[in-house]
Amino acid sequence: MRRILATLVPLGAVLLAGAAEPLVGEGRAAFRRGAGPTSRPCGACHVQGGIGGAGATVAQRQTPALWGVAALAAIPEGTIEAGVWGPGAPRGVTRGRVGYTEEGVGRFGWKAETASLDTLVANGCLAGNPPAAPVALTRYLHVLPAPVRLTDTPGAARGEALFHALACADCHVPSLGEVDGVYSDLLLHDLGADLAVRPPSGGSAPPPPEAHTRGREEWRTPPLWGLRDSAPYLHDGRAPDVSAAIAAHGGDAAESALAWRVLPAPQREAVLTFLDTLAAP
Fold first, then answer.
1. Distance of CA 110 to the CA centre of its chain
2. d(CA 40, CA 50)
3. Which residues form the domain of 186?
4. How far apart are CA 224 and CA 201, in angstroms?
5. Does the structure show a pLDDT above 50 at 205?
6. What is the DSSP secondary-structure string of the chain?
7. Taking 80 as the threshold, does the pLDDT of residue 154 lie above it?
8. Residue of higher predicted confidence among 53 and 119
9. Which class for 117: exposed (0-12), middle (13-18), buried (19 or more C-beta within 10 A)?
10. What is the mean pLDDT of the chain?
11. Mean pLDDT of 152-173
């Protein structure tokens, strides 16, 4: 609980923490610097620990947000696993799949391929950084604030009710364990052939490493906190806005996407008004 509460601080507190705790300041510096004259620092894509552009190794990926990652890291594995048999699911019918890794229950990355904050840092932007950088970077990520939903927005309550009526909240669950406002179950879901992993255009590169243990159509439910400030959307950034992202869902979410497409315009606008309250810190 203490680790979760430690992330729920305003962004200004992150800057103050850098002055009060040298390790946080060192981590922030490592986050912003590159490993060499031709390398890109973490902060080049993860802008202030938040949004960034689309990047590609063997398949294009939208840079994940880092808001509140310490809160996600603190969620017990059993809480994520219990979501497979979510409340209201018919007996014997699962909701999603746990993204197990060699380290445990995956919770980070588009394919839930990373289980811990330490591994997230180690697999990220450490090349060429000094030996102390992993510890400092991890500490820096621990003090990044989690987004907090905006309040007193006219029409948001109606939109939230419609969000639940469309069954969006079956996967984008508002709270997970003691973490409120995350809007994710952190599970893998089949989102259909249109959103399946594809190699880069013009090439015949092998599939990404996580594809060996993840289906091509499977994606981790991305947390929606900070949604308003994290465009473009979906794993490859193909959706320029939230409406397009919802409509592109298939597979497990096909019925919700169809209901969204036939929803009267005023009701769609109400849902978007609600989602617009999920802002970055």
1. 7
2. 16
3. 2-275
4. 29
5. no
6. -HHHHTT-S-HHHHHHHHHH-HHHHHHHHHHHS-SSTT---GGGTSGGGS---EEESSSEEEPPP-TTHHHHHTS-HHHHHHGGG-TTPPTT---SB--EETTEE--BSTT--B--HHHHHHTSS-TT--TTHHHHHHHHHHTSPPP------TTHHHHHHHHHHTTGGGTS-SEETTEES------EEE--GGGS--PPTT--PPPPGGGGTS-TTEEE----TTGGGS-SBSTTS-BSSHHHHHHT--GGGHHHHHHHHHS-HHHHHHHHHHHTT----
7. yes
8. 119
9. buried
10. 79
11. 95
Q: Is residue 281 in some structural domain?
A: no
Q: What's the domain count of the chain?
A: 1
Give the residue-averaged pLDDT of 223-243: 94
pTM: 0.77
Q: Residue 77 is encoded by which pair of tokens? A: 């594995």
Question: Do 191 and 217 meet the contact criterion of CB atoms below 8 Å apart?
Answer: yes
CA 13 to the chain's CA centroid: 22
Residue 162 in tokens = 């419609």
Q: Report the pLDDT value the prediction gives residue 61, as an integer from 0 to 100.
A: 75
The rounded distance, in Å, linking the Cα atoms of 110 and 189 is 11
- Each residue of 7-38: pLDDT tens digit? 333 334 444 444 446 666 666 666 666 545 55
